[in-house]
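Today's session is about reading a structure prediction critically. Students often jump straight to the picture, but the first step is always the sequence itself: look for stretches that repeat, for charged clusters, for runs of hydrophobic residues. Only then move on to the predicted structure, which in these notes is written as discrete structure tokens rather than atom positions. Here is the chain we will use throughout the hour.
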Amino acid sequence: MWRVVLLRSRAVLLHRSDHARGVCRSETPQRSQNGTPPDARVAALAAEQHGVVSTHDLRACGLSGTAVTRRVRHGRLHRLHRGVYAVGHPATTRQARFMAAVLACGIRACLSHFAAAALWGFLRWEDRLPDVTVAGCQRHIDGVRVHRSRALLQRDVLRHESIPVTSPARTLLDLAAVLPRRALRRAARQAQVDRRVSVRQLLEIADRCNGHPGAARLRAAVADGPAPTRSELEDILLDLLDAAGVQRPEINVMLHLDGEAIVPDYLWRDRRLAIEADSATWHDHKLVREHDADKQAILEAHGYRVMRVSYRQTMARPQQTLARIRAALAAC
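Below is the predicted structure for this chain, in token form.
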């Protein structure tokens, strides 16, 4: 009798020890309480995380360390970082790479800097290493640019496309420490155009994080107030007008004419003058040129003069471009 009791006690202790380590001693995948096989649970979780899971996720789904190793060997899991796997196939999207980088850095990590700006959509991704900020100690992760922050508050971390990421305001604060002035202002203005952030939010985070190396530069980037420009050329042209003391126009304001929404790049409503900034990035396409011609025709039919300014003209002959604009404003 005592022998039976001792054997049962030993079995209970072994079970508890394994449970504490998150390990299943059986080689056979265990079913969850509702009868769902572990692989089905892994697939469902991967679908929510851009096809990427961590070792912690796999164990939570009921797979032991041995079971994970077997699936890696059989090509059902593909290692992206230590303890992070793509499920089913090795091909990954940009979002999958971002999610994998965050998972590789632990539970207190989030996407940040250039990668965060690319995820929010106000900076182009240049296929660099994903940036991840961790709260606490910094550790090296192959294939990830890891940043350490002791002042990253929970209010500054959101989820976008299921990925933990710094808020748009915090992202711009971090970028302010590393981006050139013009590139920072372009990113900040694009974020405003996309309604990701407001000037008030940018000034608030700069004041709240006053010791951050990007705080002063972020304040300078928004010192002139909101300017919802949509291209580098619009930024350059606006700088030219501001420096010359020319009355600031309305920027990308919507007009409803002939039942259509018309958005001139720059508009002096009282002078009935509109300027279209024709950058090659946005206007060098047949359909875009046709749309521009239609927009100009509608504006002119309603009494607006339309002046077109190219990137090349603005960069090569800025003073001549400025003189043209001044003359057009004086003639109205």
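Discussion point for the tutorial: The chain has three domains: 16-91, 95-221, 232-331.
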